[in-house]
């Protein structure tokens, strides 16, 4: 229901008074003072909703825009922030900036002036002069000097994007005097309506009076937050203008449970008021007036008044745009019970790492027992699973899900029984997985080296539509003692939840229920791909678009998979007609949406005058396959199928391309040019041609007189597969348990030291290969 309300809100934002006008027209002004407490929309409870924020307050702390040496501004960093604010403004968002930096900028200018004014004697005789320290400069004087320069700098930077700005200089009493308070927000309202970005700064050139306590209304005004620094100023401002989002930019990544430099400190991606007692605060900023304690108090105060808040590191690249995009950056303040009670995905990953080590400590028989238990549960709980699947199918049909996706989503009794058989096969083979010795070497007397198989660690498998992938992948992870995080598509939410309960039940029988977890929160995939400290390998299973996006976005975690399945069947001139028809039909029509389905049929040109070409075309047409012609075929036909737009295309449906080639070598060259390295087939009775094809085609799977549909983990006898890889490093082709293992070296010695083998040492190398038990 909440999700629907935000969909309505999004449409509302684009059509009514919440929508900011384009740069050619006025914007909707802020609410008048007497109505400012009325919230126009429900408070955001999830990061994904922040993309709907239209009114932003961005506070830049001194540590963000000041150089590390405290002498002047960090111009590159400031330029990046200005660029992001300008982009938000040009997108139609209303942005108000609260900035520090006048004192730092003024100190830099005053320091230069003082150095220039030193006498010639002091300059020529530095021993006679005292060392100049910019920190001794009067801050109020520095602020007075720096204000104009800071605003000139902002003006020049924003001008690059065609954005106008205005300085609004405030003092603390302005918020406690009702008249000046109303004047202030009237000014802000007018500036925003004129398409101008207000930049607010405290007037540090004058000494402010002591702040007024929260329980002491001034001049009859309602209670407010004690304004001690720009954090509290931003919170007050955000509440008054009914901002959707307040971003407090600091020099740390967010809120930690203890000072970030201490052991055991962990970043809190989500914060609620209940977390206050579990946090230990450190010292305040060295260059600003507020510490993390003040930021948390300001954030919670604003949150209580309906403003969503994120505290983040302003030094992080594109922090503002990333936050507004719904990504997991900094600490998000929320009062959502769901968010507070859900297990963070980082904790799931840590539990998966621990669970992996627990699985490694088990015997092979115990791991096999867990897999067999899951296989049995798939059959014994059939009704429970199918009832959950029926809910997904009903919602999918209601939402108009395409028929091929409905087929993938659907579960039935036969599918579950086949899954159970496959899982039992995995269990039977699991006895020779983890801890298998691959190599033994006698390095020297009493010094033996072994290479043994071990799990990779923690896997992240992202899959779409197909709930049957969940028990398959879970069983492979269990058999290989890997920890596993699963991220399924929302269209299979009910099915995945039911299947995950069975996985947990099977794991609990061996005391490792946390080794596998389902990420059911609305976690952005891009956030999961940034967890390089927790995840060791990503395996996407879904559309080519999904796989390609994950491969592009994952910068630090390896991705196992393939983006496309452009598979070829080549009918050689020595092919048997009956075999060619049977194989081509199965390769294209058995399951057209599969990644191992034929997409291009290559035919030797010598067969054009015989029966094979016409018979193949007629067979495909009878099966309802839409045919496209390649360039060579198109030139030879007066009337024929339309030309293919591309020879490298995965149709994923009852469609394919037919092309002719003059020779076996040309067929191989075509496959290397337009194929995706997935699966390619030759149909021929010529053994020499078959041998040459099998040895020359550089694909993960190369077949002779067999359908491309055999490229499958179950059909290969692997029990199941986590996916098919076209990569050249690690696993390739259908990936079963073997592809989820790596190795480690174990060395057993007595009192061996490397120095013993130096020239003239007491020991010598043997390097003798030993038999493997």
TrEMBL record:
<keyword id="KW-0641">Proline biosynthesis</keyword>
<dbReference type="InterPro" id="IPR015590">
    <property type="entry name" value="Aldehyde_DH_dom"/>
</dbReference>
<feature type="domain" description="Aspartate/glutamate/uridylate kinase">
    <location>
        <begin position="55"/>
        <end position="313"/>
    </location>
</feature>
<keyword id="KW-0560">Oxidoreductase</keyword>
<protein>
    <recommendedName>
        <fullName>Delta-1-pyrroline-5-carboxylate synthase</fullName>
        <ecNumber>2.7.2.11</ecNumber>
        <ecNumber>1.2.1.41</ecNumber>
    </recommendedName>
</protein>
<comment type="similarity">
    <text>In the C-terminal section; belongs to the gamma-glutamyl phosphate reductase family.</text>
</comment>
<comment type="similarity">
    <text>In the N-terminal section; belongs to the glutamate 5-kinase family.</text>
</comment>
<feature type="domain" description="Aldehyde dehydrogenase">
    <location>
        <begin position="338"/>
        <end position="646"/>
    </location>
</feature>
<dbReference type="InterPro" id="IPR005715">
    <property type="entry name" value="Glu_5kinase/COase_Synthase"/>
</dbReference>
<dbReference type="InterPro" id="IPR001057">
    <property type="entry name" value="Glu/AcGlu_kinase"/>
</dbReference>
<keyword id="KW-0418">Kinase</keyword>
<dbReference type="InterPro" id="IPR016161">
    <property type="entry name" value="Ald_DH/histidinol_DH"/>
</dbReference>
<dbReference type="InterPro" id="IPR016163">
    <property type="entry name" value="Ald_DH_C"/>
</dbReference>
<dbReference type="InterPro" id="IPR041744">
    <property type="entry name" value="G5K_ProBA"/>
</dbReference>
<dbReference type="GO" id="GO:0004350">
    <property type="term" value="F:glutamate-5-semialdehyde dehydrogenase activity"/>
</dbReference>
<dbReference type="InterPro" id="IPR020593">
    <property type="entry name" value="G-glutamylP_reductase_CS"/>
</dbReference>
<dbReference type="Pfam" id="PF00696">
    <property type="entry name" value="AA_kinase"/>
</dbReference>
<dbReference type="InterPro" id="IPR016162">
    <property type="entry name" value="Ald_DH_N"/>
</dbReference>
<dbReference type="InterPro" id="IPR019797">
    <property type="entry name" value="Glutamate_5-kinase_CS"/>
</dbReference>
<comment type="pathway">
    <text>Amino-acid biosynthesis; L-proline biosynthesis; L-glutamate 5-semialdehyde from L-glutamate: step 2/2.</text>
</comment>
<dbReference type="Pfam" id="PF00171">
    <property type="entry name" value="Aldedh"/>
</dbReference>
<dbReference type="InterPro" id="IPR001048">
    <property type="entry name" value="Asp/Glu/Uridylate_kinase"/>
</dbReference>
<keyword id="KW-0511">Multifunctional enzyme</keyword>
<comment type="pathway">
    <text>Amino-acid biosynthesis; L-proline biosynthesis; L-glutamate 5-semialdehyde from L-glutamate: step 1/2.</text>
</comment>
<dbReference type="GO" id="GO:0004349">
    <property type="term" value="F:glutamate 5-kinase activity"/>
</dbReference>
<dbReference type="GO" id="GO:0005524">
    <property type="term" value="F:ATP binding"/>
</dbReference>
<keyword id="KW-0067">ATP-binding</keyword>
<keyword id="KW-0028">Amino-acid biosynthesis</keyword>
<dbReference type="GO" id="GO:0055129">
    <property type="term" value="P:L-proline biosynthetic process"/>
</dbReference>
<dbReference type="InterPro" id="IPR005766">
    <property type="entry name" value="P5_carboxy_syn"/>
</dbReference>
<keyword id="KW-0547">Nucleotide-binding</keyword>
<dbReference type="InterPro" id="IPR036393">
    <property type="entry name" value="AceGlu_kinase-like_sf"/>
</dbReference>
<keyword id="KW-0808">Transferase</keyword>
<dbReference type="InterPro" id="IPR000965">
    <property type="entry name" value="GPR_dom"/>
</dbReference>
<dbReference type="GO" id="GO:0005739">
    <property type="term" value="C:mitochondrion"/>
</dbReference>
<keyword id="KW-0521">NADP</keyword>
